[in-house]
Q: What sequence folds into this?
């Protein structure tokens, strides 16, 4: 049987239910491997009784939620390492014991020989080791599935009504004002660049969920976010530069998605992002620093690095090969 939240055949079950355990209970047996990519509102990691029924389980740590008492990103906080979240600065003292309990239960429940761990970056792998998990940690990068043969930038710009004679720069996030993504720093950087005396034809864009009444910067063209992956990739390919001024992030897919279509990503030098910048020889920006964003954008524009689209695409696809990463994953499954 199948439900709205479960798709199944003889070899693969895809579940994205808010009631994960009940939805897939009937599919679990001694030949089953469960691979979990998200736990938030999906899997109660304090109730993994179903592990006894299956062959093995794989966790991919896309964020720090399992490393902490529940935070998606730690930013500069280290209480999850020093005090087991018992001194959490954002929870009232009366409830901190619950966060500490959740933190300790996570350690106990994840440290099981039947669980394998995947980190999508070297940085995340190091964070997992710091946290004290004893499981073997495998690094498998999130490589986008974007075909080499596509519509082409010129046709995409025509389709999106982007002026071919302009340099197009954008910020992209599902929610424009997501506090982790740093839109306010991008917006201020745009204002700084617009005040420069040079007369350049630059189109600044922002794509994401937004409110018309709040977003009225005349220097920026706003685009509504659509949960259509192909449209997102087309938008990225229509750009020259993508700005990712994250203040707390791990290894956002947008960086490789942009590079895979030849668009230059300019991102904050934090966490797993720094690893991509190092391997692809990309310029970085300081988090929370609009002046630095404006300065680095100015340098990229003057150097015309954004024109090396074919070279960037080839380099990124060489360094991050989906076949290699898939083989790593299959090897983990085979070893269980």
A:
């Amino acid at each position: 049987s199948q439900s709205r939240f479960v798709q199944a055949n003889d070899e693969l079950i895809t579940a994205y239910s808010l009631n994960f355990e009940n939805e897939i209970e009937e599919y679990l047996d001694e030949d089953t491997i469960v691979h979990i990519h998200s736990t938030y509102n999906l899997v109660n990691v304090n109730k993994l009784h179903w592990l006894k029924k299956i062959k093995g389980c794989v966790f991919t740590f896309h964020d720090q939620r399992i490393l902490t008492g529940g935070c998606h990103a730690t930013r500069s906080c280290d209480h999850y390492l020093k005090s087991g979240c018992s001194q959490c600065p954002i929870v009232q003292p009366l409830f901190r014991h619950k966060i500490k309990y959740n933190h300790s239960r996570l350690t106990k429940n994840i440290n099981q020989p039947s669980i394998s761990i995947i980190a999508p970056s070297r940085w995340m792998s190091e964070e997992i080791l710091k946290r004290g998990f004893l499981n073997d940690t495998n690094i498998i990068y999130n490589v986008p599935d974007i075909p080499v043969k596509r519509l082409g930038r010129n046709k995409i710009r025509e389709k999106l009504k982007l002026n071919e004679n302009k340099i197009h720069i954008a910020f992209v996030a599902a929610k424009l004002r997501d506090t982790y993504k740093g839109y306010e720093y991008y917006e201020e950087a745009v204002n700084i660049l617009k005040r420069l005396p040079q007369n350049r034809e630059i189109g600044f864009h922002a794509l994401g969920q937004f409110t018309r009444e709040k977003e009225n910067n005349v220097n920026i063209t706003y685009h509504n976010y659509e949960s259509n992956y192909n449209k997102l990739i087309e938008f990225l390919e229509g750009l020259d530069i993508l700005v990712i001024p994250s203040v707390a992030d791990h290894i956002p897919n947008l960086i490789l998605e942009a590079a895979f279509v030849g668009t230059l990503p300019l991102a904050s030098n934090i966490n797993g992002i720094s690893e991509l910048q190092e391997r692809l020889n990309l310029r970085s920006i300081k988090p929370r620093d609009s002046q630095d964003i404006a300065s680095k954008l100015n340098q990229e524009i003057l150097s015309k690095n954004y024109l090396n689209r074919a070279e960037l695409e080839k380099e990124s696809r060489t360094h991050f090969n989906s076949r290699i990463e898939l083989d790593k994953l299959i090897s983990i499954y085979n070893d269980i």
In short: The CA atoms of residues 54 and 292 lie 51 Å apart. The chain has a mean pLDDT of 87. The first strand starts at residue 6 and ends at 8.
